[in-house]
């Protein structure tokens, strides 16, 4: 990290070199969770996304190192919120394919109260069920278009993606993509053999 950033925060890298750092607190967990998220998914970011992600990492690092005054302003709070929201969305998306996924289970995994997760999503204009549905539909669309899954029926793909009812899957898919799963397969040429 450039020395100029430390100066901005009123910190000296030399002073930090011998200081014990808290690697158990919420700021550290947030920083490392966001870093893991970027490692797993960062390759798909465009230049603007990379720049924004870099700024979030810098701000989260500053919070962890104790540079509250230089980092915690409106932008810092927004960076923390966005990082936490990304972690919430990622955790929901990873568990969305389990038909038994629940807000409580996801919140427990994140170490947050369920209400906090709901509030964060609501602030972003989303609900838990919307994020779950979007993740399931994205995966179903990928499977429907991928020749690797051509031997699976639409119903099999729906069940693999966490849907318990094929007719509700069809309705949700059509509403999201303005095409039926079967029509999408026909267009892509990934229809299972008879």
TrEMBL record:
<dbReference type="GO" id="GO:0003700">
    <property type="term" value="F:DNA-binding transcription factor activity"/>
</dbReference>
<protein>
    <submittedName>
        <fullName>Transcriptional regulatory protein</fullName>
    </submittedName>
</protein>
<keyword id="KW-0238">DNA-binding</keyword>
<dbReference type="InterPro" id="IPR018060">
    <property type="entry name" value="HTH_AraC"/>
</dbReference>
<dbReference type="InterPro" id="IPR018062">
    <property type="entry name" value="HTH_AraC-typ_CS"/>
</dbReference>
<dbReference type="Pfam" id="PF12833">
    <property type="entry name" value="HTH_18"/>
</dbReference>
<keyword id="KW-0805">Transcription regulation</keyword>
<keyword id="KW-0804">Transcription</keyword>
<dbReference type="InterPro" id="IPR009057">
    <property type="entry name" value="Homeodomain-like_sf"/>
</dbReference>
<dbReference type="GO" id="GO:0000976">
    <property type="term" value="F:transcription cis-regulatory region binding"/>
</dbReference>
<feature type="domain" description="HTH araC/xylS-type">
    <location>
        <begin position="82"/>
        <end position="187"/>
    </location>
</feature>
<dbReference type="InterPro" id="IPR020449">
    <property type="entry name" value="Tscrpt_reg_AraC-type_HTH"/>
</dbReference>
<dbReference type="GO" id="GO:0005829">
    <property type="term" value="C:cytosol"/>
</dbReference>
């Amino acid at each position: 990290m450039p020395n100029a950033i430390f100066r901005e925060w009123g910190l000296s890298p030399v002073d930090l070199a011998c200081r014990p750092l808290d690697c158990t607190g919420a700021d550290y967990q947030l920083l490392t969770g966001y870093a893991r998220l970027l490692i797993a998914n960062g390759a798909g970011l465009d230049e603007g996304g990379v720049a924004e992600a870099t700024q979030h990492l810098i701000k989260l690092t500053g919070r962890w190192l104790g540079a509250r005054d230089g980092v915690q302003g409106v932008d810092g709070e927004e960076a923390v919120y966005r990082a936490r929201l990304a972690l919430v969305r990622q955790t929901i998306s990873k568990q969305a394919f389990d038909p038994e996924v629940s807000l409580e289970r996801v919140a427990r995994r994140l170490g947050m109260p369920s209400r906090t997760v709901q509030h964060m999503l609501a602030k972003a204009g989303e609900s838990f069920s919307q994020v779950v549905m979007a993740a399931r539909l994205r995966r179903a669309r990928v499977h429907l278009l991928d020749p690797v899954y051509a031997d699976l029926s639409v119903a099999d793909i729906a069940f693999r993606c966490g849907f318990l009812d094929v007719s509700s899957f069809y309705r949700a898919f059509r509403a999201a993509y303005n095409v039926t799963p079967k029509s999408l397969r026909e267009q892509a040429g990934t229809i299972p053999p008879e």
